[in-house]
Every structure is written in structure tokens, then in C-alpha cells.
Amino acid sequence: xxxxxxxxxxxxxxxxxxxxxxxxxxxxxxxxxxxxxxxxxxxxxxxxxxxxxxxxxxxxxxxxxxxxxxxxxxxxxxxxxxxxxxxxxxxxxxxxxxxxxxxxxxxxxxxxxxxxxxxxxxxxxxxxxxxxxxxxxxxxxxxxxxxxxxxxxxxxxxxxxxxxxxxxxxxxxxxxxxxxxxxxxxxxxxxxxxxxxxxxxxxxxxxxxxxxxxxxxxxxxxxxxxxxxxxxxxxxxxxxxxxxxxxxxxxxxxxxxxxxxxxxxxxxxxxxxxxxxxxxxxxxxxxxxxxxxxxxxxxxxxxxxxxxxxxxxxxxxxxxxxxxxxxxxxxxxxxxxxxxxxxxxxxxxxxxxxxxxxxxxxxxxxxxxxxxxxxxxxx
Length: 379
Ligand SMILES: Cc1cc2nc3c(=O)[nH]c(=O)nc-3n(C[C@H](O)[C@H](O)[C@H](O)COP(=O)(O)OP(=O)(O)OC[C@H]3O[C@@H](n4cnc5c(N)ncnc54)[C@H](O)[C@@H]3O)c2cc1C
Description:
It contains 8 helices and 23 strands. The protein is an alpha/beta fold. The strands form 7 sheets. Strands 5-2-1-9-20 form a 5-stranded parallel sheet, covered by helices on one side. A 5-stranded parallel sheet has the order 11-18-12-13-14. A 3-stranded antiparallel sheet has the order 6-7-8, with no helix packed on it. The radius of gyration is 21 Å and the shape is globular. The two termini are 29 Å apart. It binds flavin-adenine dinucleotide.
């Protein structure tokens, strides 16, 4: 009998795991991906969608296309997981595997009265509707709100603010518009260090975007945001990040750690259960500086490569095991066709070693090329 590998979630991490496993093992194993959503969204493009740089249909592909020769797809909601037996239940049916890779991401919830007050730009619908509202916007105050921590892609809200500023300038409304970013963080992308945070703060300042760190949002009342420090902000247009939580089936299972997420081994991504791995946003990996590894697709991607390699080695009886070393990179869209690029080693000791390259047109076009490559290569 062929070994069976169950991949839970067909987002970034799940898709990459299936890809690398198939590349290594071909048809010598059964690879099954389980996914509940019909659309597979390329999340970085949501930022372009919210300012009209992409059409809705450009930023996703049908999940059905995850299934290809050697990779099976089961569409449906995973209802239960038993890591001891390496079994799951989907649509009432049980599936048993020899290996499990959990890449279920973070569930997103709109909380504290935000619903209906603005747009959750971390979703396809929210980014789409924000662009509709932006088209009808005639000046006033725009708030970009990080509603809670943690959130995925630490750069995304800052990119959103800069792209919105660019769109406002193109519409000739710069003089009658104020853009403000509110966040509970002490500085932008804080895990990457003070140098990068300072560079991002400077970018915001140059564009006239107001920045309010250490503002923990409490409530949205009609068109006013209030914060725990007693401050408030009245807005005309609002884009916000949702609350990120661990999916219930994991939160209610033996897999969850004290952090409320899966605390996998930071090098092998194996959980406390043998041959059960967890990668991407669902994991909590503490770093030396006391904060966790950020939730980002680039980490899900590299972790998938490591996990796929090690499962393949186990199946083939090989010993060429790999480890995830904490490396990661990200683009920072700035508007005007320019982007920055930062990368380094987040497992750096005592602090992550992350450097930023000089922003320019090149990084923007590299990000665009990556988007094209992603859809071409994997769908
Ligand atoms: C606006 C935005 C911009 C971003 N830009 C970047 C960027 O430039 N670079 C970067 O590195 N990262 C970026 N990210 C973050 C990146 O998208 C995530 O970190 C990445 O997708 C995480 O991968 P994952 O596999 O852990 O989770 P996901 O990609 O979220 O996949 C999880 C999958 O599991 C499925 N699932 C969950 N529960 C169930 C269930 N019970 N049954 C069946 N299926 C289920 C979900 O539907 C989902 O498809 C961005 C995110 C956003 C929102």
C-alpha cells in the first residue's frame, strides 16, 4: 500500500507542501489536500485590488485546480482531527494517513463592532468593496486600522496605507484627505528590528501619512474608533485588519499549545505527535527577542519545503533531512510603482538580522513577476 499524506488546508503552505511532495515522490505515495474554500486567493494582490490595480478575477484561481496528476483534492470542511490516530473527518467521512501536514492558517473574525463600519481588506470581498468606496470618496479622513495582534503579513497594513495615499494623489485629492494608521504595535514590523521600523516610519512621514503606534482599538461607534488609551479618531473611510484566531478544530484539540496556536518544533515543524507537522500561520514559534515568528506566506513556503523533503526522506528510507532556519523576505509596496524589499534571518541571535534594500521600481516589478509566476506555476 502506498503511504498516504494528508495535507490540511490548500492555502500557501498546503499548496507548496503538495507541490514539493509530488516533485520528490511522484506517484509512489497518495497526496490528499483538504480545503473548504472554492477560491484560492493570492493574498498579496488584495492590496492592489483595494486601490483598483487589479480586477477581482485576477487575484484568485479555482481551488479545483489544486488537484492535478498525483495530487487529490477533497473539498469540504475538516470537522475533526485525531493526531494520535493520524485521522481526520471531512463532511462526515473519515480519512486516515501515515503523515499529516497541518496548514490551516489563521481564522479571521471581525470584532468589536467593526462590521459594517469599514472594510476588512484581508478578504477578497472586503478589498473589493473598499475599492468601490474609494471611487466614491471625495476627501476627508481615511483610517487604516490594525484591530488586534497577531496579524498576518506585518507589512500589509503599511503597504495598504501607502497605496491608498498614491490612489488619493492620482485623484487629485491629496490636499483634502488625511490618512492615518492606528496600531497596537510599538513600531512597524517590530520583529524585524528598529532599523527597518524607522525606514517604514520615514516612508509614511514622507507621504504625509499619520502614524499612531501603541493604540489598542476597543470599539467602533458609527464613524469613530476608540482606543484603550482614551484617544479616538473619527473617519470617513476605514480599512481594517480582522482579529486572527486559531481554527476551532485545532484550538479544541490536543495539538494546541499555551500560546493558543500549534507550537511545532522550530526546525523540523513536527508537532508533539510523531509524523504530524504544522506549518505557516497556524504555528507559534517563539523568537529570542520574546516575540513570535511573524505570520507570513514566505515562512509557510519554506517550511513546506522542509516538511515535504523530510517526509519524502522518511518514506524513501533516506537521511538527507532539512531544517527550517528562519529565513524570510518580503516586499513593501510604496505606490508610484515602487517597492522596498527586506529580508534576513529571523532566528538571528539575540535579535533577527533583517536588512532592507534601497526601495525602487525593480522591487515592485519583482513582486508583480512573482504574482504572475505563482499563478502560472501552481494553477
Ligand atoms: C493582504 C495580505 C497581503 C499579504 N502579503 C504577503 C506577502 O507579500 N508576503 C508574505 O509572505 N505573506 C503575505 N501575506 C500573508 C500570507 O497570505 C499568509 O501568511 C499565508 O497565506 C499563510 O499560509 P498558510 O498556509 O499558513 O495559511 P493560508 O494560506 O491561510 O491557508 C489556510 C487554508 O486552510 C483552509 N482551512 C482552514 N480551516 C479549514 C477547515 N476546517 N477545513 C478545510 N479547510 C480549512 C483555509 O480555507 C485556507 O485556504 C499577506 C496576507 C494578506 C491578508
